[in-house]
Specification:
Blueprint lengths: L1 H28 L2 H16 L31 H14 L3 H12 L16 H4 L8 E10 L2 E11 L4 H14 L12 H10 L8 H11 L6
Antiparallel strand pairs: 1-2
Length: 223
């Protein structure tokens, strides 16, 4: 028994020493700012990781919408997306920084739109009255369970013709829904994001924090 205890102590000491050496080497190679930035990028990447399962209904297997952003990549907002976010702000009073942050978080930087040009996780039931061409697609929803983002139940999601229809519907949905009316009483993007979360836009209890972090990290306030 004493031999086992001694072995465990040696392992623990080795782990501590290894961690100290690794941290020191990291400090020599990178500045504190770079380390903090890399860590935050990693965290945001984890937040934005797709949890949807591809649509499984065969009747939609040949649908090709959602291909308008072929170069979608992490930490990047295409000009089309920025322009549409600004258009929503001007026409529906939804802050552009919030729209961009939702786009990043809900669609994994545009890479996951259910092959339906749905960049905001709109369920069909919620937005059908605001759509030009009401259509839908079945897919697994992204849900927060026990602190982990997972693929949840099968849900009927809105299916858009293109990204423009999606963004327009998003602006109209938020601005005309009584559910989100308090958001428009706030005077800052952070306050708007908090009210969206309070109204239950997403199941994630950290939804507002994540939106605000993305807005600040990627300096979206001038968008």
């Amino acid at each position: 028994m004493d031999l086992i205890k001694s072995y465990i102590v040696i392992l623990l000491i080795g782990a501590v020493i290894g961690g100290i050496i690794g941290f020191a080497l990291c400090g020599l190679l990178y500045s504190e700012e770079e380390i903090a930035r890399a860590s935050l990028d990693t965290i945001i990447d984890e937040w934005c990781k797709p949890a949807y399962i591809a649509p499984y209904d065969k009747q939609f297997s040949g649908f090709t919408a959602g291909k308008e952003l072929p170069d979608a990549q992490p930490h990047f907002f295409p000009d089309t997306v920025r322009s549409l976010a600004k258009w929503i702000e001007q026409n529906y009073r939804v802050p552009a920084p919030v729209t961009l942050a939702q786009y990043a978080l809900e669609s994994s930087w545009g890479r996951n739109n259910l092959n339906a040009s749905n960049y905001f996780g709109h369920t069909f039931q919620a937005v059908k009255q605001y759509m030009y061409h009401p259509r839908f697609v079945w897919a697994r929803e992204k849900a927060m369970k026990n602190g982990t983002m997972t693929a949840g139940d099968s849900v009927c999601f809105a299916r858009y013709t293109n990204i423009k229809e999606c963004f327009r519907t998003h602006g109209m949905y938020l601005s005309l829904s009584l559910r989100y009316s308090k958001a428009f009483e706030r005077t800052s993007p952070e306050g708007f994001a908090q009210e969206l979360a309070n109204a239950g836009y997403a199941t994630d209890p950290l939804y507002a924090l994540k939106l605000i972090t993305i807005m600040k990290r990627y300096q979206l306030y001038g968008s």
